[in-house]
User: Fold this.
Amino acid sequence: MEMRRMRPSLVVATLVFACVLGAVPRAASALSEKEEIELGQKIDAEIMKKNQLDPDEQAQKEINEYGRNLVKFVKRPQIPYHFKILKDDEFNAFSVPGGYVYFTSRLWNVMRKDERIGVLGHEITHVDERHAIDAISKQQRRQTIISIILIATRASDIWGDIAGLAEQMYTLKYSRGDEQRADTGAVTLCQKAGYNPAGILLAMYKIKRFEDEAGGAPPKIFSDHPPTEERLQYLKQLLTSRGIPVPPENVQTVNMPDRIGEVTSVNGNTIAFTSSKPLKPGDTVWVMREGWDFYYEKRTAVPAARAVVITPGTTISANIYIIPSTKKVQIANGMGVYAPPAPKVENGVGSLSGRLVLSSPPAVLERLMAVQTVWNDDRTRLINDNVGYLVITNPTSDKGYVGVQRSKYSYAPMETGSTLVKFNDPDQDYWIGPIISIGRGGSTIEVKPVRALAKDKTYEVLYPAWGSDVPYDKRIVGRARLESTSPKVVLKMTSYSPGWSIADIQNGFDVYEQKSGPK
Assistant:
């Protein structure tokens, strides 16, 4: 899901776990396997209230295939396992009691097959050995912390109240022994299942690179664990002791072509730079930093900011837009400026640079996509993609539109030089119109409709269709019913999809007449 911030973390999962566990009258170690399974179901339900599955069905199929093959060799086969990839930009994987194992989509996409399987084996072992249950039961001041959490959970927004206690719960760490057992378990499970037993070591190479780039802070996947360097040495010794070849850490350095100059000064969001290539106002170039490629396998120049030329000359000035990154980037003198070839946008009907300019008069409620040149997902080449979506609400004004910026392309605001392309909606017959105002306190939305609405019908709120890869039913934010038509057309939200609330709905989201059955 693209339109909201998702933050699944082991910390929050552990918080929910501790909360439920606090209600169990016996010691944690006395939990039966039946109770452990029920506990896992409750934790998973809480996690999925605030998160959505990654829509990549092939990825979900793969994680299930790898997981099923690994759990054939666990010590407690009576525990049913569930494997899920959550749509999230965090670098994380975690597990909870009762057989639930999670990857974030970012980590899944960064890891290769052997690395994914190695991490899965690690998390499966944590479940199989009941490490989380033991960690909770051994925690000093456990009852005091749980009492605070149980008080917090009486509030209406359980997730928000519990999340505020995350810092206190950082004391719930696995021991070094548990971590070594999980690493050993990963190697063992992979050996028995016929996978590469060095997969967890390959994953740790990547984790170390991520950690180094972040300034020494480990990613959430291993934030509670022993130092990464220590684990690397242990894993190498473990593989050697079993006669398994230790894969070397092969790192390539790749020089990025198309460098045209470098930054000479920085003043807030404006830079000056030299260029060997003639540029004109409005041209886009890219400031690059030294770092790792998307997969943390190659040392290379990495896009750090988009720069839009203001004034040309011997020294050129430009506005910059920082590209989101796991590393906090500060643009500085000496950073390279690059101008890789950009594809031409086809089929444009106008442009958006602070105001709408269309080749023909727009129709009321005409729908358009704002297209710009951006980096592909692994930041290896430039592509044209939708950076925003807009609906014309007042055809007589060049500001008469409501729009939604695509969050993944925050470095390319749609008002900064987009080419406008007509939007083709296969569900047009069900479309009601865009949201133009949100009354958050009462969970209401104001709509500018193309036709009259009815009190006896249910309407669906969707975030924009950025591409054909995410179908209609995966974009549903929630459902609503008509509340009033005078003086404004207002709907009241009646339900939300997992991971959504009124706070996440934006002006420009679409409202449709319900296509599917009641939910």
In short: DSSP finds eleven helices and 22 strands in the chain.
